[in-house]
Design brief:
Number of helices: 6
CATH superfamily: Phosphate transport system protein phou homolog 2, domain 2
CATH topology: Methane Monooxygenase Hydroxylase, Chain G, domain 1
Largest sheet: none
Shape: elongated
CATH class: Mainly Alpha
Number of domains: 1
Order of helices and strands: HHHHHH
CATH architecture: Up-down Bundle
């Protein structure tokens, strides 16, 4: 009897993990499409991402309810308890990433009402880095790989630094020409949204370390400070108008 119960719990947890990954896949797709909508000035694509966020929100509620049901039913301990608490926190971060993809699309639609400043360069680089962090954090969750999770934490510095660079340069261009202000401000918002997406990916990675090792690493320095450069090579320009 006890053996059958253990098998059922393992099956329930595996199904739960599959649903978390489904939610993660939807969020990854939303982020990619939000940047595509921005770069290609595609309002229809932006609106489809906004409308599609309902699926992410629905999964968020359903998965949380399932976690609570399993906690009450099985009253797990040890690694199984950590898995359920980790899943609840992961879906919270995924839901917020989905909201940020919607925010990017809303700013993209607004930007499309005016002529572009110039082709985007650093924003796609920043998005690619954040997307890679999300993918790696979910891969670390699936594989229960704390080393990969720690590399995600390290890579957050790359996104943070790029955000600061974009902000500072856009600020300069706003000062130089007030006509750039409305567009530049919206681009700084988008850069900030991408930074937050990277932060949420870091949160997921930190929870993977907790899941595997039972160790809380929030608010701690990452072991490496160089990994941020590993996602993408430094290069290209910035998302600013030419003089």
């Amino acid at each position: 009897m006890e053996r059958d119960m253990t098998k059922q719990l393992e099956k329930d947890l595996e199904n739960l993990k599959s649903r978390v990954l489904t939610m993660g896949s939807l969020v990854e797709d939303a982020i990619q499409k939000s940047i595509k909508a921005l770069v290609e000035r595609d309002n229809a694509l932006a609106i489809s991402v906004i409308d599609g966020d309902r699926k992410v929100n629905t999964l968020d509620v359903e998965i949380e309810d399932e976690c609570i049901r399993l906690l009450a039913l099985w009253q797990p301990s040890g690694s199984n308890l950590r898995f359920l608490t980790t899943a609840i926190k992961i879906i919270t971060d995924l839901e917020r990433m989905g909201d940020l993809a919607v925010d990017i699309c809303e700013r993209a639609v607004e930007l499309n009402e005016e002529p572009p400043l110039k082709p985007y360069i650093d924003i796609p680089r920043m998005a690619e880095a954040a997307e890679a962090m999300l993918k790696d954090s979910l891969d670390a969750f699936v594989a229960k790989d704390p080393e990969l999770a720690l590399r995600v934490c390290d890579n957050d510095d790359f996104v943070d630094n790029l955000n600061h660079q974009i902000f500072n340069e856009l600020l300069l261009y706003m000062i130089q020409d007030p006509k750039n202000i409305s567009r530049a401000v919206r681009i700084t918002y988008i850069a900030k949204y991408l930074e937050r997406i990277a932060d949420h990916a870091t949160n997921i990675a930190e929870m993977v370390v907790y899941l595997v090792k039972g160790k809380v690493i929030r608010h701690m320095e990452c072991p490496s400070e160089e990994a941020g450069r590993k996602i993408l090579p430094h290069g290209g320009g910035t998302d600013l108008p030419e003089k």
